[in-house]
Amino acid sequence: MFALMTVAVLGYVLLVSAMTPAEPRQRPPLRVGVLHSQTGRLAHLEKPLADATLMAIDEINARGGLLGREVVPVQVDGASRGRTFAQATRKLLSGGAVRTIFGGYASAARRSMIPVVERYDGLLFYPAVYEGGETSHRVVYTGATPNQYITPAIQWFLDNGARSFHLVGSDYIYPRVSLALVRSQLASCGARVVGEDYLEPDTEKVSAVVRRIRGAEPDVIVSALAGATNGPFFTALRGDADGRRIPTLNLVSDEWELRSAEAQRKAGAYVAGDFVAANYFESLPDAANRRFVREYKRRYGARRVSDTIAAAYAGVHLWAHAVRSAQDAAPEAVLRAVRGASLAAPGGTVYADRQNRHLWKRARVGRIRLDGRVEPVWSSEAVIRPAPYSPYRSKQEWDALVRYLYHGWGARWERPPGGRLLPQESRPGAP
Question: Model-level pTM?
Answer without folding.
Answer: 0.90
